[in-house]
Amino acid sequence: MSVFVVDRHHQPLMPCSEKRARLLLARKRAVVHRHVPFVIRLTDRKREQSEVQPVALKLDPGSKTSGMALVRVEQRGEGEVHHALHLAHLSHRGEQVHQALLQRRGYRRRRRTVNLRYRAARFANRRRKAGWLPPSLRSRIGNVLTWATRLQSWAPLTRIEVERVKFDMHLMQHPEVSGIAYQRGELVGWEIRAYLLEKFVRRCVYCGKQNVPFEIDHVRPRSRGGSHRVSNLVLSCHACNQAKGDLTAAEFGHAEVQKQARVPLKDAAAVNATRFALVEALRALGLPVGTWSGGRTRWNRDRFGVEKEHCLDALCVGDVVGITRGRSQMLLIQAQGRGSYQRTNVDGSGFPVGYFTRAKRMRGFATGDLVRAEVPQLPKPLKTEGTHVGRVAVRASGSFRVGKCDGINAKYCVVLQRADGYAYGQAPCPKP
Ligand SMILES: [Zn+2]
């Protein structure tokens, strides 16, 4: 993983290797600007004195996880080769946001029926703005936007590439209507695969199996004059495809499949609603935004022999002739939220069982700060003795938990980095 570098005026420079960062720090030419992700600040250099190459941020937005890849762009012949500088895995908390709102709804409903201050039902007299998205989706968009903004301030970004749609309808030109065949051009084949996966919700149409390698099955087999037209194609597992042999779907005992295959996937745009909103939000950063299809990502992944991993998917987004990834680690970023306004702890039925403190900050620390605690050797040894680094959980008593070690006195702690709404980890990328 590369180290981000900024100049003395906090302007982004090209990221450098970890070894080079170590040397710069040892020679006192740089200071630590931020711990995770690691950013150093050169004390003797301005942006004008440095070479900056084109750097692109590539995104693969997902509902649970989004992949991010920061790449150096090199022109080679007709196309571009992308060299990975930084790979990251961004885990969203959309599901938690959803649960929190369900819980709030429950509390409000109770207050309407229970013998308390009356709370009028108000859900029916609210108007939603055009382009409204539920908070759980907005949180996902917000996370990606936050990270795009942060990366823009640590690296000399020149453009953003996003996987916007799962399949490119334009490239396929209404497959069911125009009778396009899946063997016309290699890329079109991949778009149609992506289309079929969506249309048949990633299930074998015959046995309903999920999470198996799928094959494209011809409802009316090739051997009996069936075409490669998309309306003749369904998704099937290997076993069913074999068992079906040269029967039609109806003869195989699945007349409903024959019918379903002929109905086109309605409203392909709705499938991609959040992704469109994300692209609109990213445009506000003032960088050119390129948009691509998931079919193309899968095609690239197959061509370059890349494993299935969110950040590697991000690396495969777009029009590239090659990618390099080096010995890559990926940064795991987990959205944490910023705590709760609610200061009353309640049990499962909504009755108060305790109260949180009003203050979120205790002796200068807030839960989520990255902290180093150095507990010294004392005449009467403490069981927390030693050095601990990690996220801190604060208590009013001043006895904190740092990482996994509990019961550390606040006076031994030093803040390394303030809580920024995310928790961090690292993992090795799958090897090629
Ligand atoms: Zn099957």
TrEMBL record:
InterPro entries: HNH, HNH_nuc, NA-targeting_endonuclease, RNA-guided_IscB-like, RRXRR_dom. The keyword S-adenosyl-L-methionine does not apply. This is HNH endonuclease. The keyword Cytoplasm does not apply. Residues 191-242 form the HNH nuclease domain. Keywords: Endonuclease, Hydrolase, Nuclease. GO terms for molecular function: endonuclease activity; nucleic acid binding; zinc ion binding. Gene3D superfamilies: 1.10.30.50.
